[in-house]
Amino acid sequence: CRQKAINNLELFVIIKKMNPISEKDCREIIQKQYPKLSIAEIEQNKDGLNCLVFIVKNHTVFRFSINEESKESLIMETNFLAQFSPLSPIRIPFLTRHIDPLSQLMYSTHQFIPGEAFRNDWAKDFSKESRLKIARQLGNFLAILHGFPLEKAQQIGLIERNVSETTRKVLNETKTEVFVRQQNDCLIISN
Q1: Using CB atoms within 10 A as the burial measure, which of 32, 37, 102, 191 is most buried?
Q2: DSSP code string of 47-85
Q3: Residue 101 φ/ψ, nearest 5 degrees
Q4: How many CA atoms within 13 Å lie on the side-chain side of 43?
Q5: What confidence tens digit (pLDDT) does each residue in 59-79 have?
Q6: Strand, helix or coil at 3?
Q7: Residue 41 gets which letter from DSSP?
Q8: For residue 159, which of 65, 66, 75 has the smallest C-alpha distance?
Q9: Dist. CA 82–CA 50, nearest whole Å
């Protein structure tokens, strides 16, 4: 069989094509809230796999759930962050959950937090003092996160989830959908 290497962005596009929600659906919902908005002012962010994410005017982030599992996660996340954000020592977005009345698509919005996602290769240029400062910030954040009362977490709908099993399930679904569609082609997923 022919081998075709794909990177994470191409895998993202393939996975998104398997989901019933379209980029067009999302943009239409966004434009209902911002009728004077041009398409150029809506930027799609392709970093995540469980939601379609759009950033409007570097001000508002729209996250659309793409399937039932991501819808459940979005509900849990908005419930949890409403309780946890005021306690967090670092800036965390306050998410507002919405359901479009016409399409019944669930999505959340939050204020855009400028910056770039941290990359490991940046750390090599940090001084020892900077690395210790980040470690203290992270340790403080994790202490508060892990100190969040379990009873409260259960009351707001958080469930214990086996991340390994969820990841395995997504990979198996991807193999089934992607490999079947590729017929005789073999895919090698690369970073």
Answers
A1: 37
A2: S-SSEEEEEETTTEEEEEE-SHHHHHHHHHHHHHHHHHG
A3: -65, -30
A4: 10
A5: 899 999 888 888 888 888 899
A6: strand
A7: G
A8: 75
A9: 20
- Which token pair is 144? 């508060």
Sign of CA dihedral 8, 13, 14, 16: positive
* The token pair that represents 167 in the structure block: 């990841």
**How far, in Å, CA of 6 to CA of 191, rounded?**
8
Using CA atoms, how far apart are residues 13 and 151, in angstroms rounded to an integer?
A: 39
* Element containing residue 180 per DSSP (H, E): helix 180-181
User: What whole-number distance in Å separates Cα of residue 106 and Cα of residue 83?
Assistant: 20
- Euclidean distance between CA atoms 97 and 92, whole angstroms: 15
The 10s digit of each residue's pLDDT in 4-56 is 455 555 555 554 444 567 888 888 899 888 888 887 788 888 776 678 899 99
> Tokens at residue 187, please?
């895919």
pLDDT band of residue 174 (cuts 50, 70, 90) is low
Average pLDDT across the chain, whole number: 78
Contact 103, 29 (CB under 8 A): yes
